[in-house]
Specification:
The complex is a heterodimer of chains A (about 325) and B (about 190).
Chain A lengths: L6 H8 L7 H22 L11 H18 L3 H14 L11 E15 H4 L5 E15 L4 E8 L7 H9 L2 H4 L5 E7 L4 H4 L6 H15 L6 H14 L4 H12 L4 E5 L3 E8 L2 E8 L4 E8 L13 E7 L3 E3 L6
Antiparallel strand pairs in A: 1-2, 1-9, 1-10, 2-3, 3-4, 5-6, 6-7, 7-8, 8-9
Helix pairs in contact in A: 3-4, 4-11, 9-10, 9-11, 10-11
Chain B lengths: L7 H8 L6 H20 L1 H17 L12 H24 L2 H4 L8 H10 L6 H7 L3 H12 L4 H8 L3 H26 L5
Classes of the chains: A alpha+beta (about 325), B mainly alpha (about 190).
Chain lengths: ~325, ~190
């Protein structure tokens, strides 16, 4: 292999390794210290040994701890999620009589991107927002899923794009105004098919393994949030699993973005965008949003643009479906 | 236990009970990790990713294989995966949430097009330009091979993938990069032939 011909050798010669500044190092060490502090908070005081204590005392202490844990935890997101997890654990399960269906309705608005040539515009790529309404009927016993997706009227970031969109007939390509019906039996969705453990630590391990196998090369917080939302959204989990999912979220570095008497909103920032999800007080998924925290120069999107949102109605049990 | 006299392995095991000990791992390896990440993704993104490497490593420290004395290959494994994720996310950012609605949508092949788009003239560093042209699963392998001079076996160990997979990914990446590097060489000579 000659150096002239091997691209890797060429890359080695091109590589330059930057040296971190004191500020960069300090900021990085601060993040590590934050992670260390969070773990210490979660564990109580590190080094505390329980092993010698009588089982009865341990059980009593744990019972007290479960009730009092939100008052000990100083991280607001953790404290709020711990309360939600406890409410989820004691919530009534969704009972689905044989032959009935779980029905959910959700409203979405997502960023769509097309090549500028589709619009006959000079830009390489053109973004717009495409709203959809999604209705899902699912019969877990029969492994039957019916999905109705109604495509709404797109929203544009400037009037020129809007005019070019309709001029080019892209509304027909997007099936705007249409109701797209999909029906599956024996649907093979790994999120649904996986038997998720209900112990929080085992669940986190299972989720990390699932992500590494099916989705990404690292099971980071963004991926954990995505998968948690998928499980909450698609599988209608038992109260025990829902509680554990919320406990998994409580172990992630999240911010408490908002709280009402009946909801909490937590968020995570990664790669210049903020992902926020809102849960009911007993751990049902109510909404998700993804917002740009810095401008996207390539797409011409300003900071603060919401590039994805979804609102979920409460799951209901219904006797029938529109088409089967 | 003091950091200066202990192996990385000792420190990491010690940090299972005394988590502050992990700070010494940071002190020993941060500059090297920053340099590796910075070479792979460019200086602007390096700070965030290098910091995340140590947070992830701390959270995963019980999985560190304690038979190894040095933590550096393990840290580079985490770093190279985050570098892959970085390039993948650049594309994903524009794909924006399609999976959650379950629609294939009208949006062509975002990952490929977004990667291609981000190449266009904005990147001066040859290595980052090259890594952007690769598939996500190839990025970590190439970064370790090029920047750390790791052998196939070392990359296999570091990333936890079979050695044959390392070979095939490097082979595909080499083929993909040959044309790109060729165009740089032509430019170096003063123009295209």
């Amino acid at each position: 292999m000659s150096n002239r011909q091997d691209p890797f050798d060429r890359l080695r010669r091109a590589a330059e390794r930057p040296v971190p500044t004191a500020d960069e190092k300090s900021a990085a060490f601060g993040r590590l210290q934050h992670a260390i502090s969070r773990e210490q908070q979660m564990a109580g005081k590190s080094g505390f040994k329980w092993g010698w204590r009588p089982i009865a005392i341990l059980a009593a202490a744990l019972t007290t701890l479960v009730v009092a844990i939100p008052f000990f935890i100083t991280d607001p997101a953790q404290a709020a999620l711990t309360e939600v997890a406890e409410a989820a654990r004691v919530a009534a399960p969704l009972e689905v009589p044989e032959g009935d269906f779980i029905y959910t309705r959700s409203e979405h608005e997502d960023l769509a991107i097309r090549p500028g040539s589709d619009f006959d515009l000079p830009q390489d790529f053109v973004p717009y927002l495409l709203p959809t309404t999604r209705q899902v009927w699912r019969n877990p016993a029969e492994r039957f899923i019916l999905i109705h997706t109604t495509i709404g009227t797109p929203e544009f970031f400037d009037p020129q794009t809007q005019a070019a969109y309709y001029q080019a007939g892209l509304d027909r390509a997007d099936q705007v105004g249409e109701n797209v019906v999909e029906q599956f039996t024996e649907a093979d969705d790994p999120v649904i098919e996986t038997r998720w453990p209900t112990h929080p630590e085992q669940l986190l391990e299972a989720m990390e393994a699932f992500i590494l196998e099916n989705r990404d090369q690292t099971a980071d917080t963004s991926q954990i949030i995505d998968l948690t939302a998928d499980i909450l959204r698609e599988t209608h989990p038992s109260p025990e699993l829902r509680s554990s999912l919320v406990q998994v979220l409580a172990r992630q570095p999240l911010e408490l973005k908002g709280r009402t008497a009946t909801t909490i909103t937590i968020s995570h920032i990664s790669d210049g965008q903020e992902t926020a999800i809102t849960l009911s007080s007993d751990g049902q998924l109510l909404s998700e949003t993804v917002t740009l925290l810095k401008p996207d120069a390539d797409l011409g999107l300003p900071e603060g643009t919401t590039v994805g949102s979804a609102n979920y109605g409460q799951a209901q049990v219904v006797r029938d479906v529109p088409h089967k | 236990m003091t950091g200066g006299e202990s192996s990385d392995s000792d420190l990491i095991v010690g940090s299972w009970e005394e988590s502050e000990l992990f700070g010494e791992i940071f002190e020993r390896h941060y500059a090297a990790v920053f340099g590796f990440v910075g070479a792979a993704v460019g200086r602007d993104a390096a700070g965030d990713i290098a910091a995340e490497v140590f947070v992830r490593a701390f959270q995963l420290r019980r999985r560190f294989r304690t038979e190894y004395r040095s933590a550096r290959p393990w840290l580079f494994g985490i770093a190279s995966n985050l570098v892959s994720d970085h390039y993948r996310r650049q594309a994903r950012q524009h794909r924006a949430y399609q999976r959650s609605v379950g629609r294939e949508s009208a949006t062509v092949d975002f990952e490929d097009e977004a990667v291609a788009r981000s190449d266009a003239g904005s990147v001066s560093d040859l290595l980052t330009e090259a890594l952007k042209s690769l598939r996500a699963e190839e990025v970590a392998v190439v970064a370790l091979f090029v920047l750390e001079d790791m052998s196939y076996a070392e990359i296999s160990e570091t990333l936890g993938i079979p050695e044959g997979t390392v070979r095939s990914r490097l082979s595909r990446a080499r083929a993909r990069l040959r044309n790109l590097v060729g165009s740089w060489d032509e430019q170096d000579k003063g123009g295209f032939v």
